[in-house]
Design a protein that fits this description.
The chain is an all-alpha fold and about 100 residues long. The protein is built from three helices and no strands. This is Integral membrane protein.
Length: about 100
C-alpha cells in the first residue's frame, strides 16, 4: 500500500470534542486540581512572607547576600502565584489556539 492509497483511506472529517462525563472520576479530579491550586497559592503567600522577612533582615544588617536572596525569593513567590492563578486561562488560551490549527 503506497502513501497515497493510505491517505485516501483515512476518514476526512474527524470530529472529537472533550466531554466531562466520558470517564468516571472527572468531577473528583477537578476538585483535586482546584485544591492543588489553593495549596500552591497558600505556599506562594508563605514564601513571599518569608522572603520579605529575609530581605528586611539582610537590608537592616548590611548583608547584601541575604538581602539579595530575599529579593529573589519574593520574585519567585510572585511568579509562582502568577502561574497558579493563570494556569487555567493559559491552558484554555492554548486549547483555543490548537483548535484553530
Amino acid at each position: 500500500m503506497d502513501l497515497l492509497t493510505a491517505a485516501l483511506l483515512l476518514p476526512l472529517d474527524i470530529s472529537i470534542d472533550p466531554n466531562s462525563n466520558g470517564l468516571p472520576g472527572i468531577g473528583q479530579l477537578k476538585k483535586i486540581v482546584g485544591a492543588s491550586m489553593t495549596v500552591g497559592l497558600v505556599l506562594a503567600v508563605l514564601a513571599l512572607i518569608i522572603s520579605a522577612i529575609v530581605w528586611a533582615l539582610g537590608a537592616n544588617s548590611s548583608n547584601p547576600h541575604l538581602a539579595g536572596r530575599g529579593k529573589l525569593g519574593a520574585l519567585v513567590a510572585l511568579g509562582a502565584a502568577i502561574v497558579c492563578g493563570a494556569s487555567v486561562t493559559l491552558v484554555n488560551f492554548f486549547w483555543n489556539v490548537g483548535q484553530q490549527v
